[in-house]
Amino acid sequence: MGLIYWPPASLEGRKDLIEIGIDRTISYSDIMVAQIPWSAVDTKICQNAQWIASLAKKHKRRLIIALDWLEPSRKNLRDKKKYNWSFSDNKISQRFVFSVLTAIKNCKPDYILLGVEVNYLALYNPKEFRAFLTTFQEARKQIKKLSPETLISVSFQYELLAGHDSSRDSPKTMEVLDAFGRSLDMVGMSIYPHLAGLSPENLGVHYFNQLKEINQPIGIFETAWPADDKKGESRQSDYLKILLPKANELGVKLVIWTSSADTPQPPPQKDKLSNGIPSWAYDLGLWTLHGNPKVATLTWINWFLHRFTTTAGNSR
C-alpha cells in the first residue's frame, strides 16, 4: 500500500504543508511513488525523482518511478507545442531508453512504469501508440539486461479500458492491453470510478469484473475519490471500504492512493486551471491540505497497519 505526495506548485511559504504531507505519506506507505513528467525536452528522470527516491531510501520504502509522457488532457504527448517529438523518431526513442537506463542505475527503483494511462494514446493516436510499443520493447530488453530484478509496467486507465468512461465516448478496449502480450511484469491500473458518473453505492459487485479477465499480476498504481466537502468525504470513505477488500479478493499486488494530502489549486486562467489539471484532482487526499484526517483516513490506516504487520511477520 502506498500514497503519492504532490508538493504545492509554489513552494514559497509552504514548508509546513510539505512537512505534514511527507510525514503522512511516509508513515502510512510501504512504497513511495515518484510520478514525473517525461518529454523530449525534459528527459532527466532521476534528477526529477531524486527527492522521493532519497526519502524512500532513507525510510526503507520500496520505490516506484512512473513516467508520464502524456499531457494532462491525455490527448497528446507532453510538450508537443515546445518541440514536435514522436516515439517514431529513432533519436527520441533512443533518448527515452537511455534516460530510463540512467535512472535505473542511479535511483534503483523497484518498479519502473514506462508510461501512465497509455490506452489514452491508443485512443487518440493509434499510430503513435504503435511507435511507443516498439520503444517499450527495446527499453524492456535493455532494462532486463541491466537490472533483471526491476519490475516493468505501464498503467492503463481502467474506466476507459472497461468502457465505463462515458465522457470519452469509447467502448470497452481490453485489446489495448493485449498489445503488450506477456511483456509486463505487472499490469498497472489507474482507477477513478467517479469518471463513470457513479457513486460508491452504485458500483455493485461487477464494477471491477474486467480485472478478472487479466491473467497477469495486477497493481493499482493510482486510485482515489475526490472529497472537497462532507458529502465527498463520505463517498471517498465508502469507496475505500469497497476497494481494499475487492483488491484483496482479486489478489492485486499493490494499491496506491493518488494523493496523501490535498494540494493547493493554482489560480484559474480563462475559466480553466492554468496547468490543465482538472479541479477534482486537488481534493483526492486522505488528509486535508493542513494534515487533518478525513472520514476515510482511519480505514486506510487500519488496512495499512494490518498489512504492514502481516508482511513484516511473514518476512521473518
Written account of the structure:
With 316 residues, this protein is of the alpha/beta class. It has one domain: TIM Barrel (Alpha-Beta Barrel), CATH 3.20.20. It is built from nine helices and eleven strands. The strands form two sheets. Strands 5-4-3-2-1-9-8-7-6 form a nine-stranded parallel beta sheet. α8 links the parallel β8 and β9.
Q: What composes the largest sheet? A: 9 strands, parallel
Distance between the termini: 20 Å
CATH topology type: TIM Barrel
Arithmetic mean of pLDDT: 89
> What is the succession of H and E elements?
EHEHEHEHHEEHHEEHEEEH
The side-by-side strand order for the widest beta sheet comes to 5-4-3-2-1-9-8-7-6
Strand percentage, roughly? 5-15%
CATH superfamily: Glycosidases
Name of the CATH architecture: Alpha-Beta Barrel
Helix/sheet category: alpha/beta
Unreliable segments (pLDDT under 50, ≥5 consecutive)?
311-316
When the domains are counted, the total is 1
Q: What overall geometry do the principal axes of the alpha carbons give?
A: globular
Helix content: 25-40%
Can you tell me the CATH class? Alpha Beta
Q: Measured on Cα atoms, how large is the radius of gyration?
A: 19 Å
| Number of helical segments with 4 or more residues | 9
